[in-house]
Amino acid sequence: MQTDLSPLATTQPLPQASRPGLSRSKGWWLNGLLAVLLVVVMIWSVGIGAVSIPIPDVLAILLKQLGWEVGVVEPQQETVLTVIRLPRILLGVLVGAVLGISGAAIQGLFRNPLADPGLIGISSGASVMAVLMIVLQLRVFSDLSSLSGLYALSLAAFAGAVGTTLLVYTLARKNGRTVVSTMLLVGVAINVFCEALRGLMMYLADDAQLRAISYWSLGSLGGASWEVLQVTTPFLLVPVLLMPRLSKPMNAFALGESQAGHLGVDVSKLKRNVVILATLGVGVAVAVSGVIGFIGLVIPHLIRLVSGANHRTVLPGSALLGAIVLTLSDLVARTLVAPAELPIGIITGMIGAPTFLFMLVRGAGRKPYTEN
Amino acid sequence: MLEAQHITYHINRKILLDDVSLAVRPGELVAVVGANGAGKSTLLKTFSRELTPTQGLVLLDKKPIRGFSALELARRRAVLAQQNPLAFEFSVYELVMMGRYPHFEGHPRPEDQAIVAYALERTGIARLSGRAVPTLSGGEQQRVHLAKILAQLMDADELNQSGAPIRQPKYLLLDEPTTGLDFYYQHSLLEVASELTRRGYGVIAILHDLNLVMQYADKVLLLKEGKALAFGKPASVLTADSIFKAFHLSVQIIHQPELDGPLIVHTRQTSPVPFPSPI
């Protein structure tokens, strides 16, 4: 009588997994494609600027750096490429990657596809510290173009990011658990406070300081150099390399904290790791290049639209696409009004905000945060 | 054996559970029944370690459940929750694969893929495996989560020799598992659960349909306002008297020789107030 209740007679041979590798192979394809695209974009954009360098010459110069002499290399082109363009492109790639992957990770942490690293105070904290330093004119900051001034400013911004994030995180903890919705709301309040503080500093600032503040709060890769890269690369690379290792627990986390726990995920450890890595990555990125908006918000969204929600694809994909988009945005920023430069935050904001609205209208972000 | 000993659970001086004990042995399907707010889900959450009881102990194989790592526990027991929030649009296949997360590092092994394929077939959702979970109906989503917990506890031996007893007892905790399921799949789900108990799983299920309890449960715990009202075989626990005590509802128990068990039917004549005020 009850045998017909089994949808499958257990004596049948085991079914082959109907589409076991569906999302996986799609993810591999997507990320492979993005990796190739990134290399192409890097080589293409490194040749464009006030001194135009054709792609064959770019390749010849790059090969020469690696020790292979291929054809004749023009010294002027070589200098422009190796001293100015290459570190800037590399910094753009690293900053874009870290902003993209941190955005994806924080959206996973908040279980909200509209979350952004800025939400929990990382960008805010970083920029308010930098602005404070600029206006209060501490001695080390008197000459911001000097390397020590730049480092000190970056350090202050990084410290601000860490401090604010820890504050948000601590305030949102209750009985040893982090209530994610509280964390979001506290983040909002801290953001408002930082904004007010920055407004006050702008009110107090003189003309030159105002310029510095606006340049810095809109973001730029203009500070790139090999020295800057040398200092920041480890901090930018660590989150990019470690976060993909969290993809499995982050997938389970999408089911809510209790269900992730049932699946064996150490939930507090996961939350701590995501916050630390995101703070490190975005803090250093903001410190070295100012506030560059919308990369962390829009990029993971685009990846999800194509590949689905699996973090195994979304995390590396967001790093790759973030790097591509920031490299291209910087290309526009430094060529559009040449020889002057636009702050890169203007470009990403102008592309990002309409994309974001388009996603909202299309319903890609329709699922609000639910807490159980 | 998975057992809760003298569990009391307070929250802000409100007593949700008052000295409740319950044990499930391998091979048993234990039902928990009671009115809304009787403490059923709270009891299940102490079993799953989601809540720490104010007093009392939960033991797995005679060892306090506190002492197990999250991963050890995930391989021994699976939980079907009442609510299943999902933040992103995972596909059915990806979600069921999450059940295998406690078993592999990095990429799923062939056996994980085979187990997921089996769980998808067993719950009748194989044809939906490429669909995004939020686009499915409530009942279909419930079956996806059932497939996930089946996949979570299964191992390759069970797959290769179907019907063979398992090596280590494993436990399913089901919180209103039939929610949203149609008539066919309500029975199908409990058939799956019974089949697992025959293989040596222990199952605790919160159920609202007392006739399903009569038909499928080996034992039943009747809760009222956080206290155990009765425990034992369904036919002896679910009497007209105890059901009236727990639910304020008059019922008749009908015995028909051609049925598997007694049938519980609400009698309207003797119970004129459909929504009694809580006491």
Automatic annotation (TrEMBL), chain A:
What are the Polar residues biased-composition ranges?
A: 1-15
For this protein's source organism, the top of the classification is: Bacteria, Pseudomonadati, Bacteroidota, Cytophagia, Cytophagales
GO cellular-component term (any):
plasma membrane
User: Which one of the record's GO molecular function terms can you name?
Assistant: transmembrane transporter activity
**Belongs to which family?**
Belongs to the binding-protein-dependent transport system permease family. FecCD subfamily.
User: What Gene3D superfamilies does the record tag this protein with?
Assistant: ABC transporter involved in vitamin B12 uptake, BtuC
Can you tell which superkingdom this protein's organism belongs to? Bacteria
Q: What is this protein called?
A: Iron ABC transporter permease
Q: Which residues cross the membrane?
A: 28-53, 89-110, 117-138, 150-172, 184-204, 274-299, 319-337, 344-365
Query: What processes does the entry annotate via GO biological process terms?
Result: siderophore-iron import into cell
Question: Native species of this protein?
Answer: Larkinella punicea
What are the protein's UniProt keywords? Cell membrane, Membrane, Transmembrane, Transmembrane helix, Transport
The topology of this chain with respect to the membrane is:
Multi-pass membrane protein
PANTHER family xref list: ABC TRANSPORTER PERMEASE PROTEIN MJ0876-RELATED (PTHR30472:SF25), FERRIC ENTEROBACTIN TRANSPORT SYSTEM PERMEASE PROTEIN (PTHR30472)
* Main localization, broad class: membrane
Location in the cell reads: Cell membrane
Q: Which InterPro entries match?
A: ABC_BtuC-like, ABC_transptr_permease_BtuC
Map out region (Disordered) in residue numbers. 1-21
TrEMBL record, chain B:
SUPFAM superfamilies reported in the protein's UniProt record: P-loop containing nucleoside triphosphate hydrolases
Q: Which residues form the signal peptide?
A: none
Give the highest taxon in the source lineage.
Bacteria
Q: Keywords of this protein's UniProt record, alphabetized? A: ATP-binding, Nucleotide-binding, Translocase, Transport
Which residues belong to any copy of the ABC transporter domain?
A: 2-250
Q: Name one GO molecular function term.
A: ATP hydrolysis activity
PANTHER family to which the protein is assigned, alphabetical: HEMIN IMPORT ATP-BINDING PROTEIN HMUV
Record's function text? Part of the ABC transporter complex HmuTUV involved in hemin import. Responsible for energy coupling to the transport system.
UniProt-recorded name of the protein = Heme ABC transporter ATP-binding protein
Which organism was this protein described from?
Answer: Larkinella punicea
